[in-house]
Structure formats: C-alpha cells, structure tokens
Give the backbone structure.
Amino acid sequence: MRTSLLVALLAVFAVGALWLGTLPAAQAASKAPYVIGAVFDVTGTGAPLGTPERDTVLLLEKQINAAGGINGHPLKVVMADNASDEAQSVMTVKRLIEQDKVLAIIGPSQTGTTLSAAGTVEAAHVPMISCAAGVKIVDPVKPYIFKTAQSDVHAVAKVLDYLKVNKLHDIAIITVTNAFGESGKGQLLAQAKGMGINIVAAETFGATDTDMQPQLIRIRGTKAQAIVCWGTNPGPALVAKNARQLGLKGLIIMSHGIANHKFIELAGAAAEGVVFPAGKLLVRDDLANTEKQKTVLKNYAAAFSAEYKHEPDTFGGHAYDAMMVVVQALKTAGDDRAKLRATIEHLSYTGISGTFHFSPTDHNGLTKDSFAMVVIRGGKWVPLK
Amino acid sequence: MGWISNTLQSLISGIAVGSTYAIVALGFTIIFSSTEVVNFAQGEFVMIGAMISYWLTYDDFGLRWPLYVVVPIAVAVSAVVGLLLGWVLMRPRKDASPISLIIITVGASVLLQGIAGNQWGKDAVPVPPFTAVDPPPLDLGAIFHNGSLFPVSVQSQQLWVMGLMVLLVIGLTLFFNKTMVGKALRAVAVNKHGARLVGINVSRLVMGAFALSAAMGALAGAAIAPISTGNYAMGAMMGLKGFAAAIVGGLGNFTGSIVAGVLLGVLETCGAGFLPPEFAQYKDAFAFIILLLVLFISPNGIFALWRRKKAVRA
Amino acid sequence: MRWFTAQRTFLAALLGVLLAAALPFVLLHGSAGPLLEQNNYWLGVFTFIAIYTILAVGLNLLMGYAGQASLGHAAFYGIGAYTSAILTTRTACSPWLAMLCGIVLTGVVALLIGMPCLRLRGHYLAMATLGFGWIVFIVMRQWEPITGGSSGIENVPSLAIGGLVFDHDVKCFYLTWALALLVLVISANIVNSRVGRAFRAVHGSETAAAALGVPIARFKVQVFVLSSMYAALAGSLYAHVVKYVNPSPFDFHASVSLVVMGCIGGMASVWGAPLGAATITLLKERLQLLPWRDIDVIIYGLILIVVMVFLPGGLVSGVQVAVTRLRRQRRTAAAREGAPL
C-alpha cells in the first residue's frame, strides 16, 4: 500500500505541475514586445515597500504604452510577488527568467530578498535593478546588479554635514536592529570620526519594541547635544514620543526611513521639530525651478495621485527610477541582456531620487546631494536651507 | 542621584508593559486550567483589541467613534472570536492527541494574523490614548526635599494600563470565588469528569472560558496600543511574552501569572536600561531564556520551587 | 503492519529514485508543448521541495511517532544553514565538513533541549522549542560580527565532489533529491525497525508502551535529535544552493509553515513528507499570482484548523485510515457472503 501511496503522491505532483503550467505565459504579440520582470515584496513584512512599488510600475507601464512604447515596441511588465520570503524570491526570479524570458528585472524591495536572488540573476546574466537600500547589494559591485535607492552612506553624510554646520559635536545614536538600522549605525560610527563629531552613546532597539525609555534614560545621562535615530516605523515614532516625555529637549535627527505621513501620525505632537534627510519628492514644491528634478517629481506625483487617490512615497520613487533606467537602456540597447547591462553601467539619468551616474565601480550612482534636510513643522515637511 | 530617578522611570515603564504581559498570561491560565490546552492564539486577541480600536477611531475610515463606544465593541468582537475558537477546539474526536489541539490554536493564530494583515495592512498604526492629558512629572524628591530630586514622568495611559490590570485581578477573584459560573469553572479545572457528573455543562463553560480570556486580551490590547502603537503582527510577540510569563508563573497558577508577567516587564526594561548595549540588544531574548531555564529547572513555575504543594494536573 | 516489508521500502525507494532522476529530462526535453517546456525554474522549485521534504520528514517522525510538536524547527534549519555559511566563508573549511559540523552541533543542541523536556509528560517540548526558536532567531539577527546581522552572509560556496561542483539548477536538483531520498529511506527503515514500532507504541499509548518495557523518554529524545539533524542538513543545503543566508527564512513563521507541511504530509507517514512539502511550495507559487494580500497565510491557518479538526493524524494518514477501513469493510462483507478472502 505504501507503494500505491507513492504512486498517488507522484500523481499529485503531476497534477500540481499541470496546474502551475497554466500560469499566464508571455503571449506572442504581433509586434514583439519588450518583456521585463518586476518582483516586489508585495505581501509579507515588506508590503509597505512593495505595494507602492508595484503600483508605480503598473502606472508607468500604462503611460509608456500609451505613448507608443519603446522605439515602437510595446512594453510588457510581468509582475510578481515574492511574499517577502527569501526562498520564494529565488523561485520567482527563476520563473521570470526561465518562463517569461524577461530582458531585465526590477526589484525586489528589501535587502534580504534582493541578495538571495542575486546568485541566480548573476548566473543567468540578467540585469536586475533593486529597489532596496542595503549597501551590500552594490558593494562589492556585482556585474548584473544595480540599485536605485540611496545608500545610507549618503544619508549619513548629509546628517553629519548638518550637525557640523550647526556646531553639534556630541551626539547620541539610537538605531533599530534590522538591516536598515545596522547599516546606518555602521556608517554613523565610520563617518563621524572624520567629521570631528563624537558619538557619546550608541543604543539600539528592536523593530517590534514598544518602549524605548530605558535607552533614552541612558542617553539622558550623557552630554549629548542631539539624538540621531536610525529606523523605520514605528520605532522612531516611539523614540520621539518617549524622548519628549522624558524631558529630553535636544534636537532629534532621524533617517530617511521616516519620510512618510505615517511617522507624523504615529508620533503626534512629538514629531514637531524632528529633522531628517529626505528624497526631494517630499519637498518638490519648494525646489527651485532651475532644478532638473522638479518636473520629473511633479509629473510623477500628479500622475500617481490621479491614479491611486493618495500621495506617492519614496519607495514608489525607487521603483520609478528602476523602471526608467531599464526603459532608457532599452531605447539604445534593444532586446539584448548583455548590451542592456553594459548600457546601464554607463547611463546618466535624472529621476525621483536624484541624478544617477552609473559606472563600473558605482552601481548606485547617487551622491549625498540626492537628499535634502527637512524639518517637521505643524505636521508638514519644511525644507531647511 | 540620577540613577534613582532612572530606576524609578524604568520601573514604571516596566510595570506598565508587564501589566499587559500579566493580563495575557492570565488568559493562558484561564484556558489552560479549563481545557489543558495551551492557546497559542492568545496574543491575537491583544491584536484584535488594538486594531479594532484603531479602525473605528481613525480618520481614514471616516468613523471616528469615541473610545467609550469603540473599546467595548473591540472587546465584544474578540470575545466572539474566542467563543468560536473554543467551539472549534471541542470538535475533534475525543481521542485526538493534545498535539492536534495545540496545532489548531497555532492555525487560529496564523489565520487571525492573515485576516488582520489583509484588512488593515502591514504598517504600524496609531491608537488614541484613553485620556489625552498626561499628568505633570511626578517628583518623589519633593516629599523629602524641596523638589527636583528624582523627577519621574508618567504617561496617563501607563496609569490606565496598570489600573486596568488591578481591576481585572479584583474582578476575576470575585468572579471565581463568588459567582456560580466562576465556581463551576474552577470545578472543571480541578476535575472535568467530576464536574460533568455534578451536572456542569463542561463544553459550554469551556467556550465561556475562551470568551473571557479573549475579552481580557482585547482590553489589554486597546490599553497598551496607545503606548506601543498597533500592527497586524503585534499579537505574536505579546502572546509569546505572556506565554513565557504564564509558564514562569506556573501554568494554571493565577497569582503566579500576574507576578511573573509584571516581573518580566520590569526585567526587560531594566535589562535594556542597565546592561551594556552589547547585551541589551538581546533583551527580546530574555523572556525566552528565562522560559527555557524555568522549563528545565522547575517546569511547574518558579513558585513551585519553594511551594511544594501544587495543584494536581496532567 | 506485516505488509510493510523491507522489500517494499526498497522498491518504493527505487521507484522514487528512477522517477526523480527522470523528472529533469521530462522538464527539459518534454515535447508536451508549453506545459512542460525546458525549465530551470521547475528545477529550482523542485530543489526547494527536496529541501523542505527533508525538514518535513523530521517533523512527521516527531509528531507522528513521538507525539510531540516542535514550534521552533526553523531554528535547527537555521543553525545548519548558518554553520555552513559561517564556516565556509570565514574559515577555509570545506563545505562538506561544515555541513557535518552543523548537523552534529544541531544534534547536540537538540539533545540538551530534548533531555529535560521529554522526561516530563505533556507538551513542554512545544513550549521549549518555541522559546528556543526565538532565541536563535534573535542571535542570528543581533550577533553581527559573526552572523552578518539582518543583511546576512553572501558568497556561500557551492558543494562539490572532486571536480563536480553543484552550482547549477540541474546539479542542485540531483544533489538535493539524492539526499532527500536518502533521508526518506533511512526514515522508512527506522519506522520499520524495532525502534520504530516502539515509537508507534509511544504515540498510541504511553502507559501501555511503558508497561511493555519501552524506554519512552529515550526514544522521544532520539527521534527529536534525529529530526533536528535532518533540519540542519536541509539548512546546510539551503545555504549552499541559495549561496546566501539571512535570518528571516528561519523565523517563527518558517517554523509554522514547516508544521503545516508536516500536517498535510500526515503525521506518522514518512512518504507523506514530500507531498506536504510539494503542496505548500506549489501553493505558495500559485497563490502569489492572486491579487489578495496575505491569502497564503490565511490558507495556512485554515489548513491547520481543518486538517486537525477532521483528520487529526494528518491528511495522508487520514486517507490511509479511510482506505484501510474501506478494505476491511469490504473484506468482512465478503467473508459474510462466504466468498474466499
């Protein structure tokens, strides 16, 4: 009977395979379309990143095809979700490459899902433009992998510049214990020395922590003139709230991880006066008209708001840049993966996060000028001069 | 003198967080004594309480109901979910192994989290505090000295959480000692068959126990979320910490759960506050390390160490 | 249980090997049109199914034969993966030796956890493994100098035998399935041994088994250690196939989805494991194409509840029981009519 069970089991395998075989495959159009893949962390823990990224790519696909495609070729985006799962990310990328024969891949959204898929993408020689921030993605440079999210190196440099200009020499840092916070902490510790800034306390908190008072009490006992907090919601909101509650009156500086309305909602009154580096999307209306980025930013924001009835955020911006980088490259390289890669590696492009100058040694291509320092006043973002 | 103020401050936030763990631990205890099932979905009731409070008060959903309406609704919804879970757990065949009952509660936890993620998304959400105004910084030094010796600031919501815990404990004590239903539940906990023999409807009582512990969990959730913010997955951590407290206090031990819950909260905040950062970053693991130690050394809880006479069970 | 002979096991294993070996050829050269086009994607999916099979077998043995659940099995999976990744990237250790180290280390850890917990009656193991799983996850995330923190460890080398490097889809496929089948055959033999019969006795009635002189606690510990070592093997394979490890594949959710695989495959059914592993992996692949968020999580929850309420022995053993019952009925009916058996 065990044998029959095994046979039954294999039958189930077969049925499952057939079921999956009915996946929508790339259909043959009359004019050969350019097929690119997009994989984001749409469900699972990365959903707050993946959802606006997916929405942005769908919007762009529509816009580009309405405008006649790329050199007359329609653009087809095969959308996929890796459920924020590393193993799933590998399989999804394999599917896009093998099944859908994509020319390039946009995404994934997080450092873990990007790096787990990196080996597969490199082996298959398919260019992949990640929307994740982690510096490990492009350092050391992997030939086929690029990213459009700013590295923490630049955000930290911007923050330290600001501290130096304002003569704040003793700071306390408090960072979240995930990839984002660790990278920020590493950069803060590494760069502060050269800038003549002392880190008098280095505290951490967990991503699911509900109370940051103990760490802040320790900071209260130091001579720190400002607190630099590196994390994503809800941690930083709790840090701001707890700090004010404990009577810490000093300046609070945060990372670009709080560049969304959620932070202001969560922190309430404690958000007032918080300073952070942000992509220019947040302050697009305040940019000088001479800035090249301004039109790109305003057009994207207008189109996104019209389509989805809410404001776009920086994550959507990373997907916008990733998609447009591929589109720009397709215009000159055509449907050749190797040529695409070579073209991207020498591309210069102005998008949502700034002006990218990709090179064989820099697969991110941004500088600290892609950030602007912003302060929260009356629940609004105000750029600092 | 700063350290006294710091210690007091850590103690207060620890007791507030610990009160929530204690309420969740009580939920475990109530269900465990009546069914001998460890309900791994206990934390999800906390999440339900927090997320419904957010849902019905938040601008984006256009409801903005006052909290005195919202919190009872959250508690009621959670109680109904608890009732359903109790009902499902009574379904398997009588000879089903306890492992399958545990897995059912794990399934319920996953299911509730999935539904919450689907309904409310993955972002952290704000929940309004019960009262908007915080009390002025408390200054214990003022009693002995003319002011500003050990200033301690307390959020009004922290007072609410601690107060609710005390009220719940008093309420439950009265319930288990003075009411017929409460006494019947205790009878079920001591001996299920005996209880059935004297005419107690055991399955109805078990469902009632689930509803009660679910309601308590939701109340704890609505109370802690203004401090901690809410999100779809908050139940997992809350449930686990409460669970650790229940084990450390001795599963089924009422007083033990409360004491262990509060202790755990205090230990976490003090650990995070006084250990060097290299160790403090492992503070989430403290609860589990203590849990393992207790399981290995004294599986009936730390109080069983010096209190040899323990309830007969399992 | 006499029908379950060693011969049958051998035949089944042989059949499995042949079918598995043939699979890539079907997938690669199948002429059935677009359904079975050449496909490294499928090889990738089946490679993961093999890894999950190894994990699921361990859980099936544990749940079915020892009547215990592990709610932190992803921790053992993770220890295996991280030991391999750390030793091969930070020292000059050979991948095979690293794999062995991971398995041994995990076995020792499991022994230390299992010994105190399994001497007690009740479900202390579920609780202890749950706590242990979190501790391991937190350590993987926080111990940055060694584990690389949340962003993990890159460039884990591939496994190799002499000049044969298992770095590509087809090679990974054969490697993982060869090991998965090995684990299945070993497990089937254990189930069929004296020890295995003791396991079943333990699950049936501990009191009865104890009365028959079966050292229950020792068997429980043995099966727990074995299942954790399987998990470490799977983890090591994961690390060498994906070439990258980070903490999140080894979190509490991973432990839950392993339990789901175990439940589908059926407790106390070795050959159900690949079924459970395949069902969940394929289901995930399919579900992500649907527009509803978190539908996979919701379905996991429902599977756990429904299977445990209606078929507490798991899906496969549920079907098995039904079939056996049906046969017996037919046989008794036949006997009643005086027909020869």
The longest strand of chain A covers residues 198-205. The interface with chain B takes residues 43-45, 47-48, 177, 202-206, 208-211, 213-215, 217-218, 220-221, 233-234, 237-238, 245-247, 262, 265-266, 268 of chain A (CB under 8 Å). The CA atoms of residues 286 and 383 of chain A lie 7 Å apart.
